[in-house]
Amino acid sequence: MRKPSTVPVSKAPLSRKISRLIDVALRCRDQGEQQTATARPRAVKELAGKIGVGYQSLAYYLSARNNVPAYILPAICTALNDFAPLNALEHVAGRVAFPIPSDLSGGPNKANVMRIQKLIKEVGEALEALSDTLADGIVEEHEVETTTKELRDVVRECLSLEHWLVERYAADRAKRPRAKSA
Q1: How far apart are alpha carbons 56 and 45 in whole angstroms?
Q2: Do residues 25 and 82 make contact, with C-beta atoms less than 8 angstroms apart?
Q3: Maximal CA-CA distance, the chain
């Protein structure tokens, strides 16, 4: 028989935050459904089935008992279509992630030229917002929210174009005839 621990087990603050974000995503997903005593357990069972872990394990991860393992976090976020828990983890690591774009394909067509034009426009808007924020020498809360949104839009577009460029290079490289060796 296992000896009871004298030290109370507590989740790390980050793990509590991640569990809370997952719980919020579960509740938001089932808002149309009336909140009953069986609604959350049913949602957790459904999520556990989607990500391939046991219901009780997932329930423990989301409770105060166990930390959510990092290896199942991407699957949880994908299944819930809510990446806030993963964003919280990346924020602590000092990183920012964006989804890989699926709408950039092919060569220099009209849609891709439009994306580049959109990036140029967003850079201008972000720089204007940053200039307005810094103009009076004081940064206020509403300015931070507006400016960071503009800057994130630029970063998102840059990453999107970077991904497109790498994919384009791989596709073009595959099309090239191989040089004959002597």
Answers
A1: 8
A2: yes
A3: 75
